Amino acid sequence: MADSAAYLSMAEQGVWAGGASPHRYRILVPLLARLMPFELETNFLLLSAFAVGCSSVLLFIYLRRLGCSKIAAAVGVLFFLQLRSVVACFTHPIETDSWGWLATIAALVLLQRGKVFSFIWTVTVGVLARESVLFVLGVFCLQEWRNPVRCLAVTVLPLVVFLGIRAVIPGPEFWQYYLAEIPRLWQRRVSPEWWHVMPFNIYNAFGPLWILACMRLRAQREFLKKHSLFIALVMAQLVVASDEMRLLTLLFPVVLPLCVMAIDEARGLTNTAKQPLFFAEKKP
């Protein structure tokens, strides 16, 4: 895989050695792998295991705060661990996706708790692992859309880091890369072969969990509304995606809660539609 080769090269020669854009800007995981005392492949595997483990714990907390029962939240974690992209972190551990998931779910848990300052720093650090962590800012902005000054204040630092790292690291300019890449990917999109493969890749992101999640769409309109910008940004990646399954896995904080809410509803344990979602809905 081209991205794995880039991350391994960055860990071996230093993060400034660079790789293909946009991989060269995802410096966090290669840097940590370089600093750890074991073989590089082992370091990457340990980092992937740590990120997946922490993401699982935070996902359980996130689901519980959404009002899901302990059993349903535990099932949600099992759903997460069996996703093909998550399993791939252990079979192909030279990756940065797991740290993007960790930063995303950590930011959402902090947002639930009203820890805005910690939320900002989590997104800022997460951007150094995967630029897609920025999408979680959409949840905050929809939550605080009546206060544009606060939205701007929260987004400034992550965006400064996102743009700053692209100005500091030498190599092909980030936007030039995508200006050249989009036409190439568009050529792929209009080919008949891609239309045969694309639905399979999208389905593979969550498999039958897509169907289970759809069972809660009508009942969870408010939940979906609060995540609508996040969903739209993740889906927009499909325009430049070379691996639809991996990109769509970032929707796990939306798809998996819908699944476990359906489980709880079937068991008759809770009405999660009325549970508080984020800090703006604190109980008096």
Characterise this structure.
This protein is mainly α and about 280 residues long. It is built from 16 helices and no strands. Helix 6 (about 95-110) packs antiparallel against helix 7. The termini are far apart.
What keyword list fits this structure?
284 residues; mainly alpha; disordered C terminus
Poorly predicted residue ranges:
271-276, 279-284
Helix-strand makeup class: mainly alpha
Determine the mean pLDDT.
84
Reading the helices and strands in chain order gives: HHHHHHHHHHHHHHHH
Rg, alpha carbons: 19 Å
Shape: globular
Q: How would a textbook summarize the main sheet?
A: none
Terminal CA distance reads 52 Å
Number of DSSP E strands: 0
Q: Helix tally?
A: 16
Number of domains: 1
Strand content: under 5%
Range of helix content: 55-70%
Task: Write a brief structural summary.
The protein has 284 residues and is mainly alpha-helical. The protein has helices spanning 2-13, 28-35, 40-65, 70-81, 84-91, 97-112, 116-127, 137-143, 148-168, 174-189, 192-206, 209-214, 221-226, 228-236, 244-248, 252-267.
Write the layout of secondary structure elements.
Blueprint: H1 2-13, H2 28-35, H3 40-65, H4 70-81, H5 84-91, H6 97-112, H7 116-127, H8 137-143, H9 148-168, H10 174-189, H11 192-206, H12 209-214, H13 221-226, H14 228-236, H15 244-248, H16 252-267
